[in-house]
Write a structure and sequence with these properties.
Blueprint (H helix, E strand, L loop, with lengths): L21 H5 L12 E2 L2 E2 L18 E4 H11 L4 E4 L6 H7 L6 E4 L3 H15 L3 E5 L3 H15 L4 E7 L15 H5 L5 E4 L6 H13 L5 E7 H5 L1 E4 L17 H16 L3 E5 L1 H5 L3 H11 L3 E3 L14 E4 L6 H9 L2 E5 L5 H4 L10 E6 L13 E4 L2 H11 L6 H13 L19 H12 L4 E4 L3 H9 L8 E3 L9 H11 L5 E6 H7 L3 H6 L5 E6 L4 H10 L14 H7 L3 E5 L2 H13 L4 E6 L31
Parallel strand pairs: 4-5, 4-6, 6-7, 7-9, 8-9, 11-12, 11-14, 12-13, 14-15, 15-16, 17-18, 17-19, 19-20, 20-22, 21-22
Antiparallel strand pairs: 1-2, 3-10
Helix pairs in contact: 2-3, 2-7, 4-5, 4-18, 9-14, 11-14, 12-15, 16-17, 16-23
Bound molecules: thiamine diphosphate (TPP) and magnesium ion.
Magnesium ion (MG) binds next to helix 19.
Length: 633
């Protein structure tokens, strides 16, 4: 691309690589805070401007492009096909050019936060980088919750924000906000474009940074004058997509893994806990191989649901605050815990100093900063989950461990029926319970759909009662716990996988935070199915008030409109279920309907999610609905 100066000078960018992007540095990225060497491996970033993997074969006439158009070209060259966004003044030069790029599908959302959630859903469904766009000022700040959600759950997203012209930056111009300053703690990096000529290199770097190591969001701030500036392009852009990640063990990881395998082979009460990292690394089959080669029980985190088939005899289900009794007790009584691609966060660990007192802890992660953050890591293994699980599977020896399995089976059997209503015995004209609703959904969908769960009691009931057998079958906001996530994220999934049924399962609270997107479902022809689990309250808040705040239901009962009428006002097929004998037919009818649908299911107000590990206690303190104190187990 003659005419483009080499981009080797750090001062071309306002790039904010913070310490959390250390893994980028590990892999030759941009974690150098001085920015003196913006490189990818040993090659200067300028090399990204020259064709690498798909050299152009045909002569190409010189073209004059605006920065906005070059950004569209760069998005295509980086592999983007879909953007979720919302325009505004400082993004209009880009939007004018976008209209000339039909290969870039733009889904117009109704709130920028939802653009970020949709890009997040798209990324989780495809494993590729999701893209969202907003204007400057309020558009940019509206993105933040969505970016923080993606950051906490390690989802690769590139956010493009309009910015006031460079000359106006720092003058408190209309709709000027220092978005680069704001996103530091919730992105892996942020760039402000200083010149249109930098666009290819910055986009390549942003996509690489978003996807590599521990994935996450990256922001590109795009001043209006840079969008309007012109550049000469004499050749098509090089392939700017992130390179395929090589998942090989380095010698240190290999050594640590051998230690881990020795511990595993000699352990009497081992447990493997698999998290989101296993799904992201495409390591579910390696996990299955390890489990079957060693005979160890497997639990998953909330975001790990599906990476190990829940019907498998070695599956204990989910660990954590609302995990199963057997998975939590297994953690607390284990002599070895192998955590893979998970963070040992507070919802899993409870009180760190009393967590799993008799266990050695092996922690496998791509992010070295995750080791020891909450609990000790006796054997940290800095490795990609797939490489580590493959390695462990080849070193593992099968052992029966009859005494351990007897205890695990006892815990499972003791609580197998907890919280489950016998539908055949229950009065048909009463509202169904949420566990019944989730089990009916599973029956109707046969497990084929992607389920996107919002935040609250219904989310935990989904985790406990649906049963997940493959990675990507359920998505939810695990780390930030962002209400209003499910519906826009489901839009992103549906855009990525039009042939797959996509169900957003939301509470009445979360639905009221995201219902504006019903309009997007219709306009963008996205037949997402919405199941509102309607307990007429902020159920999870109500539960905590009942258990820990003296039954003072302060502001947790939620007035609401008629959701069926609201959906119909958008032209969406909708129905309300008030009796359990209406439930399954309503779900079937919604599933068969070709367009978007809303099923508003009235469930009892006073449900409580069990099992529950009260905050600040240990997994051994798990309580169950039958009031059996699990510590006696
Ligand atoms: C944006 C946001 N605000 C507040 C909360 C705190 N919060 C967690 S669960 C919950 C209640 C959710 O109510 P609803 O959507 O009706 O689901 P339910 O618990 O009733 O199933 C609240 C307010 C949150 N997680 N996210
Ligand atoms: Mg509710």
């Amino acid at each position: 691309m003659p005419g483009l100066p080499p981009v080797t000078q750090r001062q071309r960018y306002a790039h904010v690589p913070h310490e959390r992007s250390a893994e980028a540095g590990k892999q030759g990225g941009t974690a150098d805070p001085t920015g003196s060497s913006l490189t990818r491996g040993d090659e200067p970033l300028a090399a990204l401007l020259t064709p690498q993997r798909t050299p152009p074969t045909q002569a190409h006439a010189n073209r004059t492009l605006t920065g906005g158009a070059l950004a569209c070209e760069a998005l295509l060259a980086a592999g983007a096909t879909t953007l979720f966004g919302y325009p505004g003044g400082a993004a209009l030069p880009f939007y004018r050019e976008l209209a000339r790029y039909p290969r870039l599908r733009h889904v117009l959302v109704r709130h920028e936060q939802n653009a970020a959630h949709a890009a997040d859903g798209y990324a989780r469904a495809t494993g590729r980088v999701g893209v969202c766009v907003a204007t400057s000022g309020p558009g940019a700040t509206n993105l933040l919750t969505g970016l923080a959600t993606a950051y906490m759950d390690c989802v690769p997203v590139v956010a493009l924000t309009g910015q006031v012209a460079r000359a106006a930056i720092g003058t408190q111009a209309f709709q000027e906000v220092d978005v680069i300053g704001m996103v530091g703690p919730i992105t892996k990096g942020a760039f402000q474009l200083k010149s249109a000529e930098d666009i290819p290199a910055v986009f390549a770097e942003a996509f690489r940074l978003a996807a590599e190591g521990r994935p996450g969001p990256v922001l590109i701030d795009f001043p209006k004058d840079v969008q309007l500036a012109t550049v000469e392009l004499s050749e098509p852009l090089a392939d700017l997509a992130p390179a395929e990640y090589e998942c090989e063990l380095d010698p240190a990881a290999d050594f640590a893994l051998r230690q881990a395998a020795a511990l595993l082979n000699s352990a009497e009460r081992p447990l493997v806990i698999a998290g989101h990292g296993v799904a992201m690394a495409g390591a579910a089959s390696a996990l299955l191989r390890l489990a079957e080669a060693s005979g160890v029980p497997v639990g998953t985190t909330l975001l790990g649901l599906g990476v190990f088939p829940q019907h498998h005899p070695q599956s204990l289900g989910m660990v954590g605050m609302h995990g199963t009794v057997q998975a939590n007790l297994a953690m607390q009584h284990a002599d070895l815990i192998v955590g893979v691609g998970m963070r040992f966060d507070d919802r899993v660990v409870g009180r760190p100093k009393d967590f799993a007192p008799g266990a050695r802890i092996v922690h496998v992660d791509v992010d070295p900063q995750s080791f020891g953050r909450v609990v000790r890591a006796d054997v940290p293994v800095l490795a990609d989950a797939r490489a580590a699980l493959d390695g462990l599977a080849s070193l593992a020896e099968w052992r029966a461990r009859a005494a351990w399995w007897t205890r695990l089976q006892q815990w499972t059997d003791d609580h197998a029926a907890c919280g489950i209503v016998d539908t055949h015995m229950a009065p048909p004209d009463e509202p169904p319970t949420t566990p019944e609703v989730i089990r009916a959904l599973r029956r109707v969908l046969g497990g084929a759909a992607t389920v996107v769960a919002d935040i609250g009691q219904h989310q935990m009931f989904v985790a406990l009662h649906h049963g997940f057998d493959r990675p990507g079958q359920v998505l939810t906001s695990g780390g930030l716990g962002t209400m209003g996530y499910a519906l826009p994220a489901a839009m992103g999934v549906k855009t990525a996988e039009p042939g797959r049924a996509v169900w957003a399962v939301v509470g009445d609270g979360g639905f009221q935070m995201s219902a504006a997107e019903l309009s997007t479902l219709v306009a963008a022809r996205l037949p997402v199915k919405v199941l509102v689990v309607n307990n007429q309250c902020l159920g999870m808040v109500r539960q905590w008030q009942e258990l820990f705040y003296d039954n003072v239901y302060s502001h947790s009962l939620l007035p609401q409109p008629d959701f069926e009428a609201l959906a119909k006002a958008h032209g969406i097929w909708a129905t309300t279920v008030r009796r359990r004998d209406q439930l399954e037919n309503a779900l079937r009818e919604a599933a068969l309907h070709p367009g978007p649908t809303v099923v508003d299911v009235r469930v009892p107000v006073e449900e409580t999610v069990y099992p529950m590990v009260p905050a600040g206690s240990t997994p051994g303190d798990v309580r169950c609905v039958d009031a059996v104190d699990a510590s006696f187990c």
